[in-house]
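Example 588.
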Amino acid sequence: MGKKKLTTAGGRPYVEFDNSMTVGNRGPILLQDYFLHEDLAHFNRERIPERVVHAKGTGAFGTFTVTHDISRYTKAKIFSEIGKQTKMFARFSLVAGEKGSADTERDPRGFALKFYTEDGNWDLVGNNTPVFFIKDAKKFSHFIHTQKRDPKTNCKSPTMVWDFWSLNPESLHQVMILMSDRGTPFSYRNMHGFGSHTFSLINKENEKVWVKFHFKTLQGVKNFNGKEASDMKATDPDHSQRDLVEAIERKDFPKWAMSIQVMTVEQAKTYKWNPFDVTKVWSHKEFPLIDVGTMELNEIPQNYFRDVEQSAFAPANVVNGISYSPDKMLQGRLLSYPDAHRYRLGVNYENIPVNKCPYMVANYQRDGQMQVGENGGANPNYRPNSFDDIVVDESYKERPMNLESNVADWFDRNENDNDHYTQPGILYREAMNDQDKKNTVANIISAMSGISGEKKEEIIKRQLCHFFRADAQLGMAIAKGLGVSIDEKTMGIKHKKIVSKMKNTAKTKDPVKEKKVYPSNDHIGSDCDSDHTGKDNNSDHSDGDCDNDETETTEKKGKSKGKFNKPGREVSPDTTGIDTKADKTKSK
Ligand code: HEM
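Predicted structure in complex with protoporphyrin IX containing FE:
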């Protein structure tokens, strides 16, 4: 008694486990051995599609605790009072690799959070970096193709990667972070997390502010350098997974401090950067971090597939008091994630335990594949009806949105918004110490050395130009490492005034009178997510001739009217004066 019988999925007890039913000792297997068929058939169906990105990852349950009152900005119940605790689930991941890829690959890390709040699940699906490679959702699939495998060789291709980045200089900021040691975190516990996009907070008076979410690791930032990361791939490809599981199992629960940056709607209108551009950060000096709470991870799921593989996050899942912004990337993501989940997990993915809102869900969605819940029971499946008491609560409605234009068109995302260089330059010069700089340059050289083929020179020249425009010394160091000779006379890049003070015309008064700023002494690992230094810098590249029009030239020559672009100018990488000697280029 007490022992469980081994059964089929239908509950029929097994009478034999080890051997198939055959005709005689050495004869063929009989079709009627259903135990065998069922086992083989179920096994064949064990894999579901892996996530098209962020396939390799790990997850844990935890608790979010409010430590500071931010109810003047938001009516979200999760933040309603100091001390309030909310159950949550986090999944960390790599972006590009497949499900079996190594944990220490150079890649951004996903930082996806699901908070189970009374007003529904709030998903904050961020990364360990405050910015991203592109600023329009239309670029996403193309960008990701370059991160995956070459269609012919089925190998990773540095040529595709750098070709895309060099043709989309908006990527430079994220590329710089990725190429620093921050691109190879020691573990998931030792990295910060960011909501990255601008979102909005809405308070009880229905007043809105723009917000960015930050999660600072309380374990301290710790990164591998390039070699250590590479070595770890061979030693333990599951290093980050193992690290998280082991820490939680020994009750060394990892914690992050959550804070926000707040910008008023008025401030956003005049801020020197487009506040809805995910390739940019907001100055921490102008928009100081405001403490909110602590997130602790304290439970490893008992079953990885059930809770981690089947977890489904969606930026569309916001709650009363937290909402979207016009960020073009965020807007694209609102659509993309639920669509991905319907494909990967099926239309009823919100009913899977890890995704299910533990509070009330009431609607008229019924049926569909894998409907294993109550499916609405005997309740009406149409609306309006005379039987149920489900109401629409208009108190949850946001104020109507004022838009600045009534013209619908395919606007150039870079028009009047094409300074891709100032923030990466500041990051390099002021947030990185000498060792960070050295490692970043070495990592870039190593990564760019993989570029090959007939377009090699062109791609290298184009990308070098972007590095030069961010910082002349950075450009020179990389060029030198790649064996590219630079003719300084013809280079034409007037980088003498790389960092010139530009009066900040924006009226960026702190709306909240909170002055708490995190210390910025851990360099690249810490506050390069701010304006990197808090200094009011802006570069003055407008007198530079390194003007090969960021690539958009290939799409729209002469159309952009931005600061760096000379309208109508025919652009060739040669205008940079950078002389790439293919034969001199190191190839590893
Ligand atoms: C328009 C741009 C983007 C699109 C279309 C997009 C699309 C996707 C898709 C389809 C998935 C797989 C979902 C699944 O199958 O479960 C995914 C996963 C993910 N994305 Fe994005 N993504 C975009 C940009 C971003 C950005 C900017 C961030 C971070 C700031 C980000 C963070 C993540 C994370 C963390 C995951 C993994 C979530 C998990 O752990 O399950 N993505 N993305």
